[in-house]
Amino acid sequence: MKRTSRDIRTANRYEVLRRLIAASPTSRQELAAATGLSLATVATLVGELLELRLVTEVGFEDSAGGRPRGLIAVDASGGALIGVDIAETYVHVELFDLALNVLARAEEQLRPDGSRPEQVAGRVAAAVAAVVDRAGTRAGRVLGVGVSVPGQVDRDTGVVEYAANWQWHGVPLLDLLAELLPYPLHLDNPLRACTVAELWFGAARGRDDAVVVNLGTGVGAGLALGGGLHRGVSNSAGEWGHTTLVLDGRPCHCGGHGCVETYVGAPGIMQHLRELGPHSPLLHPDDQTATIDALARAVAEGDPVARAVVRETARYLGAGISDLINLLNPEVVVLSSWVAARLGEPLLVEVRRAVARHALRRPLAATEIVLSPIPTDPVSLGAATFALEGALRSVRQRSGTTVTTGRAAPTGRAVATGRAVAAGSRTAPSS
Amino acid sequence: MKRTSRDIRTANRYEVLRRLIAASPTSRQELAAATGLSLATVATLVGELLELRLVTEVGFEDSAGGRPRGLIAVDASGGALIGVDIAETYVHVELFDLALNVLARAEEQLRPDGSRPEQVAGRVAAAVAAVVDRAGTRAGRVLGVGVSVPGQVDRDTGVVEYAANWQWHGVPLLDLLAELLPYPLHLDNPLRACTVAELWFGAARGRDDAVVVNLGTGVGAGLALGGGLHRGVSNSAGEWGHTTLVLDGRPCHCGGHGCVETYVGAPGIMQHLRELGPHSPLLHPDDQTATIDALARAVAEGDPVARAVVRETARYLGAGISDLINLLNPEVVVLSSWVAARLGEPLLVEVRRAVARHALRRPLAATEIVLSPIPTDPVSLGAATFALEGALRSVRQRSGTTVTTGRAAPTGRAVATGRAVAAGSRTAPSS
Ligand SMILES: [Zn+2]
Ligand SMILES: [Zn+2]
Predict the structure, then answer these.
(1) Which residue has the higher pLDDT, A428 or A370?
(2) What SS3 state is found at B336?
(3) Residues at Cβ < 5 Å from ligand 2 ion
(4) Is residue A63 part of a domain?
(5) Do B326 and A161 touch (CB under 8 A)?
(6) Which residue stretches belong to region Disordered (chains A, B) (predicted)?
């Protein structure tokens, strides 16, 4: 039990800002009613947010004869947040205002021969510079940059411990980026980015317990429990893709057999297509995206093979999601990432049917299964949210009592030396 | 996000008392160092525990020249806690002092024709009366009774929603007990009782994330995440026994196929024995306990069939535990309940081997797998712990700001009318 009153204060600060982003302007009284916090606590938290210039006073509302109530709103122009989505073949970067509207986007391609850590860091820095440039004066001060990289990430040290795509082992990516970018930096992976995006802005908002099922090439389950991200003891929770669904089943690249991922990740779905329609023109053997797109179109047109593939995928997915429901008893299960987005409603309908056959009655009755409602790239949104959380954690930084997990690079000079350490922020072992 | 500063205060009160139970006497300074809380917070919490008469001042220690430090200890004789373990064929009751030493035990048999709710409540009341009588004046004031009943339990209303053993549906067991017992009552199920016992007194103490794998006739995984019990949105989290390990595998009484429970629960282990040693004398077809006992003895004697059965059980159990490790990334996995206790070390060794083959490297490296170190019945200990937690939650009850989830029956008369509602405690819908 290492949770302290400081953690609860940070969590409450998150909660108040979340409400303000969802509905601005609002009064301290309404915030207190919505959060269950006392008016005094809300007043303190709003004071901190005002001091951080994340929110602003915007006037008064009449309160039925009583004293007029002060209204607070998110100060959209009070700063910018940048989210970086590093994928196998591209770097996608978005710059957000504080209401989390996208002000600018940039994309850089990653070629197979350009995947050395220094090269990837260079592409990231170029794309970040591009969005800052495009947003121009609207960007204002950049509060931080969140970076999502696929793999096992130590967010405290900023080291990518393992990235299967590029066979990276122990890459100090945050140090490399700190030499190039003069902003506070936060590193994590796409699964946690998507989960935090749902928690702040999507289907998990206001829910105590939610599971975000990520369906892409790889597969994972982000766990938002008790209103916060469950990271596990070494920040690797959520490896649902490598839980066993069929003991001794299909071989998996993790070395195991019968993992969930081998049946419901994009390559697994392509395998169902090969088995159910060996000569189907829907299959693009070397192109996952084209195959899933073709499947989605064919399902819409009533193609029987495509429908059978979605049903078969949902049979496995439904069993796996039932396991999550039985084990964790969540309020909501969110289907996220590109495979879920493209197969959409037809997949959702079949998954709900399969779950209804598998899950226990009591937890099933308490759960809904939905598609992610986030209309933009959830990974860059979530990455930007890590930067926002970093800014919120730093409230007491000046007094020296808080250690931030992100790295702050306050001056160009500090950045140029690669020793980007602000007073009160954490020093990486390597610096 | 419904967690409030009151919740964190309750959690901190739990934590301070846990430390005191583990090591008494101790000073406020040592408690602050051990918990990471400020000395001022610890002083406030200790003051509350003193007021509740759960702890007591026991003198001073020198602090190397400084002011002598006050020492605090658990006041073992400050009150009694009663834990009730209702099983299919018996009711086992233990009375504890506040250091959680057992002062008295009682057991009542449940006959198949004696399983109506009123009959079971009567057996519970008789056994509770017996332990209070046996403990005599040592019992002091009874702070509460925790009751564990196998099945789906609504702990807020005290209703057993479903108990498969007896086909109970919607039984208001807490109301029935409140008519017979003049103590605050707390209802939950054995999985959560065992988990809370590990969290307070066993292998999960001081751990942030732990999984308590219960191996009995049924199978479950109690989740202690972030230092507290993860209940899920409808208090049914932990149904790991009914997650799929072999899609379309062995039929399960839940209606599914290939559930973990069908391979590693006592009946599943008996099935392995039937398959691996069809004529084995170890099999007692109608007696799970005798069969598991015979297996344990035969393994110790090197019997090859018995060893093969343990290996086969561990193959499934290892795959299932790997799933928990990959998904939740816990610090510790605890093997608990009677099957784990009887098969003991030989099972543990095989399970560790199987997990090392299945689990992902990163979460595997962060996890240890251990047998439960609790020497007595963990279910009645955990049930008593629910009563202790109830007493700790009630600190502010007199001011009317706290709603307790247990039911308090302050006077004999209130009990006799079945309307056992104390000021500030929760009224059941039926009363
Ligand atoms: Zn795998
Ligand atoms: Zn089952």
Answers:
(1) A370
(2) strand
(3) B 242, 252, 254, 256, 259
(4) yes
(5) no
(6) 399-431
Residues B143 and B248 in one domain: no
- Predicted pLDDT at A271: 97
Query: Across the interface, which of A4, A15, A240 has its CB nearest the CB of B37?
Result: A4
Using the predicted structure, report yes or no on whether residue A360 has a pLDDT greater than 60. yes
Least confident of B120-124, B200-204, B402-406: B402-406
CATH number at residue A393: 3.30.420.40
B234 CA from centroid of ligand 2 (Å): 19
> Cβ of B86 under 8 Å from any chain A Cβ?
no
For the segment A278-289, what is each residue's pLDDT rounded down to a tens digit? Answer: 999 999 999 999
With pLDDT > 90 as the criterion, what percentage of chain B qualifies?
A: 66
Which long-range contacts (C-beta less than 8 Å, at least 24 apart) are formed by B13-17?
A: B13/B45, B13/B48, B13/B49, B13/B392, B13/B395, B14/A1, B14/B200, B14/B389, B14/B392, B15/A1, B15/B227, B16/B42, B16/B45, B16/B46, B16/B49, B17/B49, B17/B54, B17/B55, B17/B74, B17/B388, B17/B392
Asked which of A74, A104, A125 is the last residue of a domain, the reply is A74
Query: From the list B11, B36, B234, which residue is nearest A366 (CB)?
Result: B234
Global ipTM: 0.86
How much is the CA Rg of chain A, to the nearest whole Å? 22
DSSP for B195-229 reads HHHHHHHSTTTT-SSEEEEEESSSEEEEEEETTEE
Length of chain A: 431
Verify that B175 and B286 share a domain, yes or no.
Answer: no
Which of A239, A358, A362 lies nearest to residue B234, judging by beta carbons? Answer: A362
Looking at beta carbons, which residues of chain A come within 8 Å of B231? 329
CB atoms within 10 A of CB A344: 15
A326 closest CB neighbour out of B225, B239, B316: B239
Claim to verify: residue A115 and residue A145 sit in the same structural domain? yes
pLDDT in tens, B244-282: 999 999 999 999 999 999 999 999 999 999 999 999 999
As given in the structure block, the two tokens for residue A115 are 């995947």
Q: Is residue B198 part of a domain?
A: no
Q: Is A431 among the domain residues?
A: no
Q: Please check whether residue B430 is in contact with residue B417, taking contact to mean a CB–CB distance below 8 angstroms.
A: no
For position A423, what pLDDT does the model report?
Answer: 29
Per the structure, the complete domain to which residue B298 belongs is given by: 203-371
Q: How many domains does chain B have?
A: 3
Alpha helices in B256-303 (DSSP H): 261-264, 266-276, 288-300
What pTM does this model have? 0.87
Average pLDDT over residues A302-326: 98
Distance from CA of A317 to the nearest CA of B (A): 11
A422: closest CA of chain B, how far (Å): 24
DSSP element (H, E) containing B94: strand B90-97
Q: Which residues of B touch A242 (CB under 8 A)?
A: 326, 360
CATH number of the domain bearing residue B54: 1.10.10.10
Is B327 part of any domain? Answer: yes
Domain identity same for B420 and B273: no
Cβ pair B363:A161 closer than 8 A: no
Q: Which of A244, A321, A401 to mutate to test the interface with B (most CBs of B within 10 A)?
A: A244
Strands B332-336 and B210-215: parallel
Same domain, B246 and B168: no
Which of the listed residues A51, A74, A97 is the one where a domain comes to its end?
A74
**By CA distance, what is A320's nearest residue in B?**
B244
Question: Number of Cβ pairs closer than 8 Å across A and B?
Answer: 185
**Comparing A397 with A228, which gets the higher pLDDT?**
A228
Q: Report chain A residues whose CB lies below 8 A from the CB of B254.
A: 360
- Give the Cα separation of A406 and A426 in Å (integer): 7
Q: What are the structure tokens assigned to A294, written together?
A: 């073709």
**Per-residue pLDDT band at A160 (split at 50, 70, 90):** very high
